[in-house]
Amino acid sequence: MGYVAIKGGEDAISNAEILVDYYRVKDATDPIEIDQIRTQFRLLVDKIMGEGSIYAPEHAAIALKQVEGDVFESAFILRAFRATLRRNYYSEVIDTDNMVVERRISSAFREIPDGQILGPTRDYTQRLLHPNLAEETFGSIEKFLEDFEAGAILENGNEIPKYSRVVDLLRKEGILRAVEDNESGRLVDITREAVKFPAPRSAALQMLARSETGGLMCLAYSAQRGFGSAHATVGEMRVGKVKIAVKDSKGRTRSIGRIKVTEAEMLSRIHVPHKDKVPYLSLGYGLCFGQNETKAISMGILDRTMRSDGDAPSEAQEFVLYHTEGVESYGFTNHLKLPHYVTFQSGLNNLRQAMDRRKKEMDKWRVGNMTRDDFKKK
Amino acid sequence: MIFDDDLVLCECDLEPLKSFVEDLEKQHSVEVIQEPGICLTMIKAEDSLEHQQFFLGEALTTECEVSVDGTAGVGLCLGEEPVRGYCIAVIDGVNRLRGETPENVSEFIQSQRVVLEEREAKEQALVKKTRVDFKLMEQD
């Protein structure tokens, strides 16, 4: 399909841009501070950073404020912001073994080394609305913080616990193994190299890490429901902070800060084709910015399904990776609102010509009041 | 150790860092070679079983370069933090002057490390309260 550009409308477009800003503030309420968004909407900020593919909490909060909380638009803006900056550093591989954990659970094992830590979660709470939040004041927040923080009991001085991996137990036993396939292990950067399918796993993981959470969940859920071969269990999911280290311009390795990530190790059984071979468990891997458990789990499921041979949507690598790319799919869906006058008119003309042809054809057969269709019926 | 010297400077409170660097500025001649500016760091990760490396995404980073008595110092930290980036660069330059960290810098970093460790430990203590031991229905 060809496109024909439009012109004109500059005044209306710039007025619309001002009008949407007017709608953002027209009720003249107190301006929301960026720090308030960054801290009190932390999960939303985390989600946007993941989909925007840039870890920048303050800028994610600004994007959210700018577009009145539209998640897709915020991620789009962050991607655009990212595109204006030079990439000067590559980090060392982040070490999730040494994560400062604030949450780690396993649904595969009840008892795990170093224990399960529920951490900050709403998983076990009733989804009831708390209308009293409408009355929240700075004073009530301070009181809550004071009371809650008073309960912190330091047992081992300032020692920060390190947690061993749950799945290491299965790996040592030989039940958990790498998937036996011939997939390329090449490290690809999809922001620098066009993706070709079948894509190397590194490209797939990078695309999943920046994909849209809802899209990922939709396909991962379809695989769990039976449209695919996944029957995944959370071997371990952990949320916490990891250190980022880079080589500076003098060649020295330097820590530049920490980021929060969610990591999900999804266990699923690998069926082997031959009777003499023993089935085993393998891992689908999910890792994303911030605390975004739905995304990490879905990513882990889809990492596994895309490496299987089935023909369900969740098992088709190209289908999964292209359609969960939020900025692309959001952009395409919304471009449908932009003028398509010429293309639509061209289609309409074709339809009219087809109708004319049909009418002329029918007129050839007309005898008195009888049409071609009347003859056919007889 | 979680908080190495660089990480301490990246995460400590800005006010004490600024004030410490202001003192250093009085003792040394500091010239800005590269103004603090933002750029990106691509973060490399790997899956925990097959160790397949991949790129997780980028992180906003501030970089700055200064000269301290003619010795280059480089400042790097996550986020858009021009003041912190500059301060880290000055401290780096001071450290590189004689090839070792001077005592006053060590003392400052250690004092900030203690603050950060206490803060982290306090949060960990709160997190630890959510440690769970689920029982099966047939268990007591």
In short:
Chain A is α+β, with helices and mostly antiparallel strands and 378 residues long.
Cα radius of gyration of chain A in angstroms: 28 Å
Oligomer: heterodimer
- Tally the beta strands of chain B: 4
Number of strands of chain A: 7
Mean pLDDT across all amino acids of chain B: 95
Q: Tags for this entry?
A:
heterodimer, A: 378 residues, alpha+beta, 3 domains, four-stranded antiparallel beta sheet, 14 helices, 42% helix, 16% strand, B: 140 residues, three-stranded antiparallel beta sheet, 4 strands
Explain how this protein is built.
The complex is a heterodimer of chains A (378) and B (140). Chain A has 378 residues and is of the alpha+beta class. Chain A has 3 domains: 31-83; 96-129 and 162-332, no CATH class; 341-377. Chain A is 42% helix and 16% strand. Chain A is built from 14 helices and 7 strands. Chain A has helices spanning 10-25, 34-40, 42-52, 57-66, 71-83, 138-149, 167-173, 201-209, 213-225, 293-305, 317-323, 326-335, 341-364, 372-377; strands spanning 54-55, 87-93, 100-105, 116-117, 233-247, 253-270, 280-289. Chain A has a 4-stranded antiparallel sheet with strand order 3-5-6-7. The mean pLDDT of chain A is 92. Chain B is of the alpha+beta class and 140 residues long. Chain B has one domain (5-125). Chain B is built from 4 helices and 4 strands. In chain B, strands 1-2-3 form a 3-stranded antiparallel sheet. The longest helix of chain B is centred in the C-terminal third of the chain and has 26 residues, at 103-128. Chain B is extended, with a radius of gyration of 20 Å. The mean pLDDT of chain B is 95. The chains are: A alpha+beta (378), B alpha+beta (140). Chains A and B meet through strand 1, helix 4, strand 2, strand 3 and strand 4 of A and helix 1, strand 1, strand 2, strand 3 and helix 4 of B.
